[in-house]
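Standup notes, structure subgroup. Blocker cleared on the heme C input:
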Amino acid sequence: MSSPHSQTGKFPKLLPAICGKYFTAIAAAMLINGSVVAAEGKPNPEKMQELQKIMQHQMMQMKPELQAKVKALSPKTKQLLMKILAQHSRYSDTATLRQVMTEVLADYQSMVSGIMTDNNEQAADSARRLANHRIPVGGLLPYLGLENINDERLAILSGFNDSVEGNAKKLAAAADAGDMTTAASLVGSISTGCVSCHAVFRGQPGRSNLLR
Ligand code: HEC
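Run returned:
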């Protein structure tokens, strides 16, 4: 089986020492306090190394002004970003966050469709797909706006991640167990996560700058 990152195809062989050192430090810190892995229940140095490579690759794709902002983040924020990344195994070399979001919406709709038709397999599979949505090219940060790349703003990501990905996984488990009432009750918490994140990190989609 290929590693998730091999899907990106053009992974650079040589990474600048600065990126390497930076993310090695994060990975080491995480291994010591075990925050990523403890959440998953099992420490996994291989996974940590893979995440570290993915983050290095993302850093190299960023323009210097964004790189500088990312480097200035606190260890706590960096750990949070790693923890979010650790929950995903699909990466795109080309898809933007907008494209990923359109796909997330399609999964969300399919999930609700499964619930409404008592199709627990459709509901569970769609919810799992949603929870493990693709990571856009360059990661999440390039799409959030430079003004949001600081510890205070990014700390909010944790709650959104729990309400969307966390509840989608719970919904999948409920659907697996044939408990569609519980599954249905989780849809609201998931949408609240979508809407709250949009309220913080997104404006109205498709606004024209040609209107007064
Ligand atoms: C981590 C924060 C975050 C979460 C959680 C989130 N979104 Fe988004 N979403 C964004 C951002 C940021 C954009 C704007 C991206 C851009 O325009 O580059 C966006 C854009 C969108 C768009 C508009 C795409 C377009 O054409 O402009 C849709 C649809 C969407 N999200 C659906 C969802 C759904 C459904 C969920 C929940 C299942 C969700 N989002 C959860 C941050 C989030």
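Discussed briefly. Residues 97-98, 101-102, 104-105, 108, 130, 143-144, 157, 160, 164, 190, 193-194, 197-198, 201-202, 205 surround heme C (CB under 6 Å).
Next: hand off to the docking folks.
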